[in-house]
# Entry
Amino acid sequence: MSTRTVEFEVARNPEMGPGGTLVASPTEPFDAPEPELGADTMLVNVGPQHPATHGVLRLVVELDGETVVRVDPRLGYLHSSFEKLGEYRTWNQVVPLTDRMDYLAPLIYNCAYVMAVEKLMGIEVTDRCRVARVVCMEMDRIFSHLLWLGTWSIDVGAFTPFLYAFQQREKVYKLHEALTGARITTSATRIGGMMADLPEGWTDGVREFANNLPATLDEIDGLLKHNAIHIGRTQGIGAISADEAVNCGLTGANLRASGVPYDVRKDRPYYDYESYDFEVPIGCHGDCYDRYLVRMEEMRQSTRILHQALDRLPAGPMDVEDPRISLPSKTDCMSDMESMIHHFKLITEGIPAPAEDCWFSVEGSKGELGMYVVGDGGPKPVRWRIRPPSFVNLSAIPRLSEGHLMADLIMINASLDIVLGEIDR
Amino acid sequence: MTRSKAPPGSFFDLAAGGAGAVDAPAAASETAAVPPCNPSVDALREQFPDGVLRNEVCAGDQDVVYVDSARLVEMLGWLHESPGQQYDHLADVTAVDHGGGRPIEVVYQLWSIPHRAALRVKCELPLDSLEIDTVTGIWVGANWLEREVYDLFGVHFTGHPDLRRILMPDNYAEGHPLRKDFPLRGRFSRAEQTRRALTQDPEDYYMPGEIGGRVPQLVAEDAGGDAEEADDVD
Amino acid sequence: MGVDTPGMLGSGSPAFLTTRLDFVVNWARRNSLWPMPFGTACCAIEMMASAASNFDLARFGMERMSFSPRQADVLICAGRVPYKLAPVLRRIWDQMMQPKWCISMGACASSGGVFDVYSMVQGIDTIVPVDVYIPGCPPRPEGLIYGLMMVQEKIRGESLANHADLRAEDPLAAGRPRADDREVTDLTGPFGNSTHQNRVSGLVATDAVGRSEDRLP
# Structure
């Protein structure tokens, strides 16, 4: 495998040991023996409606003075029962549910779901579709990271990067809209292909976006990377060692910030990711600051993948040429009896799947996004399960925030890059 | 273009019965005994000859091992620790209810970061004894995943440090939603659900005695829900 | 509230005075609406997009997102509201000071949307009174801005003379659903596609809640 570590030339706090050892945060209260003020701890309720919990997460925090003793996250304030609803729909009808689950990176979810179903059914999609989906997924990885960057900077007390990030996000919104007609809820994929071919000139728009993005990232980096407040609030905060991170089930940038080079795109390549030239950034301290650096670098690497994918985008059909899977064209439907019948059967009956199960995971923007689909020979899933990366990432927050200050808890929460729609499902 | 078509002998040909029917016997024998793709399956069978009930290959190249629920923790512990296996990443814990009174499957998705190998371990639990040992002692990350399975399926994980409902409200009385016998809109009428929702106190379970622990009346409510559900199963 | 309850200025106040005062008060209220963003899901992202520079909600005097309900004028409920969140929504509405308005942004907040399931409130109008519904899944930022302008339009028509009627609030209603059982049943009965999906699924027989009468427009 190619080199995977990206060096960060940033001076670190000298107190900090390598390997993500937990060190004193710069603002830790003095160690001098305090007068006995009683052993009572205080309970503070954060959320479920709180701007810093990034949704409707509720954290019940036990505080000793300003220091966090225990965190008890309460979930379920956005439980929309996607998995139950999916059991009542045909395989293709589930696609619109997937993008409402992670509304920060809808196309990754669309793609991951249909990839799992295609693997279950044994369908190989066309070359053009494979590359188009890579473009979609990498674009949405940036899309999601940009929102994380905006909210992260608001949490750290900077508003300007939010505006910069949203300017770039608006460009992706426009690309989404050109591709699918919707800004967020894209529902772009279908089993065996995409809902439509890429519109004319769309790839130029993506290329322009990929060209312009690094300048914005540099600009935001200039505001944050060496900023004393940013460094003071993130270096050494929420550190976790590599072994512990793996054991907690962390994935994605949160795991890689601890120095574990686990990236599904490299370790279990799908859609020819092994043939793209990109690096997986890893950190070495496992703290909030490293997570910031890793995500920033991931966006730059994603632009590299975007360029390569656009270069190799082949011509040809987008959908599988199998009338049992893909809808026939409108013209065929109107002029050809057989196509009409296939269209009718596909719409009314759906596509059957074998009575097997299939697990497929992709590298989502938040971590390893797994889709587990179980069929029973019929056109509807028996079980449709999402392995929610931010759910598992969030489960480490009691461990990460223990012993830190209340204000650090906000940064730790922001650094995990959670999305509640996916956590609660 | 071969790539754009479903491969011969795939499910579609079987279902259609037409041109692909000649491949049907070959594909049918696939379910009988296919050599597993992952050497861990054989190693596991060698190590625990009576613990592995059967194995199969799903979706082309995915290995599934059905194990005895009594020896699950021991076997997963071996898969986690043993130098040749090192399944250090527990990707997922979930359950599948096939309906019709069939046992509920608890599914563990394992991944070995050093060896880059995937393994799916399943345990079948009959509906009348939904109990299984927790794996939180091996992977800390299993904590919330198991809580979710408990919440949505009603599978009890023995020895779990903090087995509470996680997604549904603590006093949810309608049962376990992802069971097949649970109606999509819940058991109560919308009016009842709305009324019950607003009687919840948003600051509940917030006092020192309640945080992180089980609240007595909460258990009672929960048990009531289970009893009602048992009636519905019959 | 009774009909004979006098307005803020008393029943005998000269009409021209109230009209001019109405205009001033409404002008002030209209152009400094502070939203309380109750964002839960996808719509919250569009709400953030409308606050960002491309759509710039600040043009309408609404840039000050008030995360404290007591300093807010208009509750924007953006996104899905499960039953677990319903008491929180009601609590926040009760905490807001009069005069206050409520916007239900998106299909899920307005009617439950595609989520006709066990965990979701089927329209927040069963929980709190809603002034403006914004359709869309999610609505575009223009939609949200248009909705806020409709609230402004609504304020323009208000008068201090009927202040008591418009702002009537029953202290006993705090923490209770806005709609009674019958109205909830009417509002949440399955219709259209959601019923269809149930019949086709064949997995379980779900007892559809029968509507006592058709939905009123």
About this structure: The helical segments of chain B are 11-16, 24-32, 39-47, 72-81, 142-153, 190-199, 216-233. The longest helix of chain B spans residues 216-233. Chain B has three domains: 1-29, 33-161, 168-234. Confidence is low (pLDDT under 50) at residues 1-10, 14-32, 208-234 of chain B.
